[in-house]
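lol ok so funny story. i was supposed to be doing the assay writeup but got distracted and ended up predicting the structure for this chain instead. priorities right. anyway since i did it might as well share w the group, maybe its usefull for someone
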Amino acid sequence: MSLTAGVGVAYDEDSFVSGATACQDAIGHLKGAKAEAIIVFSSVKYNQQDMLKGVRSVSGQTLLVGSSTAGEIITDGPVKRNSVVVMALASETVKFYAAVGKPVSAGPRAAGKAAAEEVKKLAGENLKTFMMLPDVLKGNGADIVRGVLDALGQHFPVVGGASGDDFQFKQTYQYLNDQVYSDSVVGLGLTGEFKIGIGVKHGWIPVGAAMTATKSEGGVLHEVNGRPAISIYEDYFGEKEAAILKTETLARLAITYPIGLKQEGSDELLIRDPISVDKNGSITCAAEIPQGSEIRLMIGSVEEAVKVARQAAQTAISQLDGATPQAIIIFNCIARNKLFGDRSGEEITAIQEILGRDVPLIGFYTYGEQAPLGGEVRNIEKCNPAFHNETVVIAALA
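and the output, tada:
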């Protein structure tokens, strides 16, 4: 037995009971094997500490990591109601190590580095993969990724998803063993005999001409081609329609019309979610747009998103060199869930058509994703982890 996984879900109104039930369900699927790691994704509907106590009442002192979410995903597909989902992992050949870095608000890069350094210290030089669960409401997600790479090396395989809070954008939570954190980065490191395949795709298509970010600071895009950033949308929709965006949130429009950022080493533009626009026409995005970058307006569709989800799964399974996936972890942007609406299950079904319908699967809808450009993990010199928006990230373990 090299790797076995079990997935559980619970929807009870009681936070403790939901945590305990989901964990018991997950461990029950291990058929007597001893759990070595527990992954928990939970709605913020639940009292986070009580929910975690429920999980721990069943898991005991087994290593545990997790995150609050903007929606949960299991083997049966996206969960249609607020829930707690748990994956239990058992293995004789894979070891797991975890740590936390904080506070993100005082320095996102330092927090990412601290989490990764501690995991590396615990795991030793045999560390092969790092999974991260950051709070990006408190700091620049791209800087958190940079901090992780400062500790692990610029081409180290990194995958993960930013914590959510059911689309409220107020406060997210990260879990490590018995503790609930906010303003932190929780990291999980894997060593031993296993294969990982990573798929990364979004499917948004550029429209119109390429533009230059002539003035920007972090996630705030001030000017494009020397004009206020809102001109991106004025030119496409007309000034009258774009003017509405100055009084209403951009987030709804961004689901279908985000901004694309050209990135060397990727066949897709990196997606950046516009969140709000100020009176001067500056747009605040969910992650940074470096000054001087080439950017495009993007357009999305359900059909294209389903197609690229299948392609991402094909990339992931191709990296397993014929090995059969034993566990799947998905980090999927909340914007994709909003785009799909009632059709959100189509994306997960497309992924499972490639990776296997019965392979234990857990995931959540995120506020940003982390993965190497193109999902590259075999050619380590081309493995370039980045912070993504509106993207599906698939990690298949074999």
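The first helix runs from residue 15 to 28. The first strand starts at residue 4 and ends at 10.
back to the writeup now i swear
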